[in-house]
Amino acid sequence: MFDRYEAGETAVLVHIDFSDEERREDLVELQLLVESAGARSVGVITGSRRSPDRKFFIGSGKAEELAALVAATEANVVIFNHALSPAQERNLEQVCQCRVLDRTSLILDIFAQRARTHEGKLQVELAQLRHMSTRLVRGWTHLERQKGGIGLRGPGETQLETDRRLLRGRIKNINKRLERVDKQREQSRRARKRSDMPTVSLVGYTNAGKSTLFNALTSSDVYAADQLFATLDPTLRKLDLPDGAVILADTVGFIRHLPHDLVAAFKATLQETRQAELLLHIVDCADENMADNFEQVQSVLKEIDADEVMQLIVCNKIDLLEDVTPRIEYDDRGKPVRVWVSAHKRLGFDLLLKAITELIGEVIHEFTLRIPATAGHYLGQFYRLDAIQQKEYDDLGNCILSVRLSDADWRRLAKQSQGELETFIFDPSIEKAVC
């Protein structure tokens, strides 16, 4: 049903340089994606354009050049380093006489290969179904009209309409199953909060070394390889610190222009990142595109509403650089902001644990709120976060609430309330002294 690769498949790659920065992609990254998918590149078509061609994306001349290269190399798939419309895919397939996939379809295929858990497979299938729903017409042009005659009269809908109805039903079914998974994850998160064990989540650009660092810190055996999207399903392990312990979460890597279908489908998985007390943003400091990759990760974090969570930048792979040693960098307030380590050589781990310990002490808030009856809707939000330690009411009907929650959750609530919650904070001991 889906466009999935098989071993030994050969591909022609297409990469266009656009003057618009928003449309610009990296050819080396495309080649790594193709390699991760298990295909072999037998040719590359490159060019420059101001904007995509409406019919072929690359123009009629380049389309003919592409078709000639496909015929000469006997390639069985063409992969574009860009997002194509359904009409452009169909037009290119007619010219090239082989399958044409865009960047989104390629990433979806890699995810389909990497998914191991039941939840991961459901999420990938949901993303593929959403992506496919706009491309059904490509394979059913011979069934676009209803047929007449004895034995050929159907239910009054075309094959295309039938497929769309089946897709909608399957998407609805998967969404219900993922909702149950999300509830189970939420229960686990609440249990961890009750045990006073903070969650630290690893984030970063794909192939930055997150899983290697995760394995080295927790003595785990999570699959780690020098390829894009080696990790798909989230893994949680306990990490002992000098002054306690935290839950360390390894998550899927990000990439520029991450398909929106994937972001939506992996909402439950990305909750581990969104609700963590601290994010370790792993950066490949030996990558020449380090700055751009950093910004791409920040963009995805904002998209999933995780940009409010406190971050510690971990510059990984210092063993590939000259004259760089493990160290901690602090800001003007003496707060750790960056740690230089090597996960492969296990360098700087003591400094990383020290920085995590210092930051974890700052990410838990405990205070008392006096919430008037007119603002009682805030109680439900604190209950959902399992943040209420004690609740009572004063003589005026105000709710006196003792809460304990992470810095990220508090900042998110304060932002949603437009600062109103902050006006409810008070110190009971001071008021008693005044009385």
UniProtKB/TrEMBL annotation:
Binding site for Mg(2+): 211, 231
PANTHER family linked: GTP-BINDING PROTEIN 6-RELATED, GTP-BINDING PROTEIN HFLX
Function: GTPase that associates with the 50S ribosomal subunit and may have a role during protein synthesis or ribosome biogenesis.
Family annotation (CDD domains): HflX (cd01878)
Superkingdom to which the source organism belongs: Bacteria
GO molecular function, one term: ribosome binding
Residues at which GTP binds: 204-211, 229-233, 250-253, 316-319, 342-344
Coiled-coil region(s): 164-191
Entry keyword annotation includes Nucleotide-binding: yes
Gene3D superfamilies reported in the protein's UniProt record: 6.10.250.2860, GTPase HflX, N-terminal domain, P-loop containing nucleotide triphosphate hydrolases
Similarity remark: Belongs to the TRAFAC class OBG-HflX-like GTPase superfamily. HflX GTPase family.
Assembly description: Monomer. Associates with the 50S ribosomal subunit.
InterPro entries: EFG_III/V, G_HFLX_dom, GTP-bd, GTP-bd_M, GTPase_HflX, GTPase_HflX_N, GTPase_HflX_N_sf, P-loop_NTPase
Entry GO CC: cytoplasm
Compartment(s) where it occurs, according to its Swiss-Prot or TrEMBL record: Cytoplasm
Official protein name in the record: GTPase HflX
Record key words, sorted: Coiled coil, Cytoplasm, GTP-binding, Hydrolase, Magnesium, Metal-binding, Nucleotide-binding
Residue ranges constituting the Hflx-type G domain according to the UniProt record: 198-364
Cofactor(s) it depends on: Mg(2+)
A Pfam family this chain is assigned to: MMR_HSR1
Keyword Hydrolase attributed: yes
